[in-house]
């Protein structure tokens, strides 16, 4: 059993540092002790196998230990943060719930209480009958009602039985994100050190890297773009970094070039994964390239009509509130359009992000890449806006380094786009952003705001 192997592995190196959370160190021996203690808490309170347990918190040594204790107890874990993409009540209406552990901000001890939310779900009922530990994660619901994604935790953990070199890393993706759980398992299974922070601001992340000699930063293109714009890499000592991995959204070439120039000694690696199928092994063609090779043991890929499909040994059990996402042969349609060169893929964007301009299909990322190359542009989000004549028109919402007249900005954008793109891809409207172009999770949000319009 992968979870038992993992817990036993912790006991083999009891004096190694497992977590540094807000400058508080916890060894692997102490982490193993926390897992055992939480196991006793579950038994003493009558938390039975198969019951659904909400954990409200974020990555701390105690929260991770509780997750593993619940896994050993064959529970269904529902991890949520106070900044989750779905509200707690909405999530639990999909998954149901029996117990709730709350980790108040700054607390190391959770508060346990009965929290009964009835939900008779056939997929979950059948899964519980297998006796396997489960985890329910939620999609953002950007195209409708959020989807509950059920994972077999043993299946997910099996990927990490293969040993890796230990590393000191920050788990940037959050507690309720599959990529966050994947990162924590990758670090701890190799007996590396998790450096967790209370917030994921530029300042907090950079301070943690400098203070704890972090070698690996898994993050998003939006965070890296903000890091470059803030010039925090010139204020903090980030020389311990040897590798930055980035994913969850399309990386603008301009941002990648800036990071490569600012941090020339850091290896830059694009990653690819989905909550439904797991995180694939990846290898960028080179540090400055958006082309990557993806796959690895347990994964197969194919491209059908320019769309990437994946078959995975680590895939979800299924959606709790939606039809099966797999075809008869077990393939999953990622909805990501790709270009292919030999063994390498380049991700162009989600089909759901497409803008339809008079029947012509436009991916926001290709326009954003052009605009990001312009002077004085810090960030840009391109999206479609309804139009009676064309169906949609293209809007570019732009964050600037320094104030600039809107008409001047629009002229520069239109000239640059006309030089490099087809005429129908030139933005019809340009908006100077009043607020951030990314969510609290540092992922680009493509939507309108009041702004200054031309």
UniProtKB/TrEMBL annotation:
CDD domains: AFD_class_I (cd04433)
InterPro entries from the UniProt entry: AMP-bd_C, AMP-bd_C_sf, AMP-binding_CS, AMP-dep_synth/lig_dom, ANL_N_sf, ATP-dep_AMP-bd_enzyme
A GO MF label: acid-thiol ligase activity
Keyword Translocase attributed: no
Coiled coil regions in record: none
Pfam families, per database record: AMP-binding, AMP-binding_C
UniProt name for this protein: Acyl--CoA ligase
